[in-house]
Amino acid sequence: ELPPSEFMQVADSTWLVLSVVSNGREAPGCQATGVTKIARSVIAPLAEHHVSVLMLSTYQTDFILVRERDLPMVIHTLAGEFDIYKEEGGECVPVTCDDVSNGFLKPKPAAGPTLHPVQSPQTRFCVLTVAPDTLPAIATMLIDVLFYSHSPPWDAATGSQDLDSITFFSFSLIEGYISIVMDAETQKRFPSDLLLTSSTGELWRMVRIGGQPLGFDECGIVAQIAEPLAAADISAYYISTFNFDHALVPEEGIAEVIQLLQQRQESSR
């Protein structure tokens, strides 16, 4: 319904959402899986079969977006380990490989995926939610932060922001559940009694993947981060955006994360 505009870029592909749940149930209000827990069973196999994904972690759970044209390969890849269902008329209907066989399966790529550089700003972030009925109370502040707050200056020479003061704000509303990621300084602008966080109230640090916009065709970007963190049992909150990918890790673990990713970079050379 949005009018065409020279200012709006739209990716060519249509994407479908995969939600991974345990025992067929997903309890609202708690993180069901976590990007590192599905790294080996979902993210790595899809990367090996040359399926590009977008990852969206929320306060409640994690979603994997795949291109609609890749659905046959997705189901072929995951059917051995998961029961797969599609939603039809509000009901979950089992899916089999035979339901989506509309062409040959792509072979695995011969070469390994590109390992992109990672950068870690000094900014500390909060992962929050808001009760839907209290959203109007912070609507004005949300609009101000989203559309009128000043971002750090863009460096034309390097084509990037100053990563020591990166601005990142994420708001998602999915099936009535709200999820927000904001830096700790921005959080102070909101009424503290309306923002809900985990009982530990931990702060997070960011690892941003890619020195230049990543595009949508490359595979293995999420796996580059998720696999080593899963091996080290480090939790991560992952958000793919139009240009870059971002992983949030607990603040106390950032040094270990950077070391792990640097070691992976060096071993690939």
How would you characterize the overall build of this protein?
The chain starts with 14 loop residues before the first strand and ends with a helix. Residues 27-33 have low confidence and may be disordered. Helix content is 23%, strand content 23%. By secondary structure, the protein is an alpha+beta fold. It contains 6 helices and 14 strands. Helix 1 crosses helix 2. The longest helix is centred in the middle third of the chain and has 14 residues, at 135-148. The protein is globular, with a radius of gyration of 19 Å. The strands form 4 sheets. Strands 6, 7, 10, 11, 12, 13 and 14 form a 7-stranded antiparallel beta sheet that branches. The chain has a 3-stranded antiparallel beta sheet with strand order 1-3-2, covered by helices on one side.
Number of strands: 14
Q: What would the principal axes of the Cα set say about the shape?
A: globular
How do the SSEs run, as a string of H and E? EHEEHEEEEHEEEEHEHEEH
The value of Rg in angstroms is: 19 Å
By DSSP (H or I, 4+ residues per run), the number of helices equals: 6
Summarize the main sheet: 7 strands, antiparallel
Query: What is the strand content?
Result: 15-25%
Q: How far is the N terminus from the C terminus?
A: 47 Å
Task: Flag low-confidence runs.
Answer: 27-33
Structural class: alpha+beta
As a percent range, the share of helical residues equals: 10-25%
What would the average pLDDT be, to the nearest integer? 82
